Amino acid sequence: MTLVADIIVIVLLLLGAGFALIGSWGLVRLPTTMERLHGPTKATTLGLGALLVASVVHAQARLGVWTAHELLISLFLFITAPISANMIAKVHLHRARVGTVDEPEGIAGPPPRPSGDGDWATFEAPRRDTPASTANS
């Protein structure tokens, strides 16, 4: 391998390992579900992406072959991590609204309430006599 490819692989491996470590540490150390979501969805996803790109560069420099498997895995991770985090967050907020969640107070505090007379479905049940309300019956 050339010196430039070696340096690129080393930098990507260190960057990826650092992000994965920080994301995993955040998953373990943060107190609430909403705060724990940021570790695996942000830092760990970027870390794994950097590790997979390092694998692509290493395969090209060592074997002279471009591999698409790692890039497809990265694409899958970058698409599915935010979607799954959004679904977990929505379920958690709905459970918090119903009162079935018992968690310690988080570092960030409670989620903000919508300002004004606005209604946000995650915080409040549908009001009667509205077109989309299932509570009308």
Automatic annotation (TrEMBL):
What domain of life?
Bacteria
InterPro entries in alphabetical order: PhaG_MnhG_YufB (IPR005133)
Instruction: Give the record's keywords alphabetically.
Output: Membrane, Transmembrane, Transmembrane helix
Q: Name one Pfam family in it.
A: PhaG_MnhG_YufB
* Residue numbers spanned by region Disordered: 101-137
Q: Which residues cross the membrane?
A: 6-28, 71-89
Q: Return the protein name.
A: Na+/H+ antiporter subunit G
This chain's source organism reads Sphingomonas hominis
**Source species taxonomy:** Bacteria, Pseudomonadati, Pseudomonadota, Alphaproteobacteria, Sphingomonadales
